[in-house]
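Exam revision sheet. Question 4 asks you to relate a sequence to its structure. Input first:
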Amino acid sequence: MSINLNLPPELENELSQEASQLNLTVSEYILQILTVRRIANPPKTGSELVAYWQSEGVINSRPDITDSQAYARQLRHEAETRERA
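Answer key, structure tokens:
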């Protein structure tokens, strides 16, 4: 998709300078900004956080773990009993 924008000169210069510092073209930099824009507006409530985790595929990302509490206990036990180098 191609979109044409008329940016104020100050914003265009700012974006150009920031892109240059990252060795990116302005188009690549704008795409990067748009890709990570959700991080700039973090979830504010528990339900928003759960919805965000679901949209990112974090919730139910490990279908092999059927009992999360037992799995957490197992991890804790392994960490507490591991040999230190």
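Marking note for examiners. Residues 43-85 form one domain.
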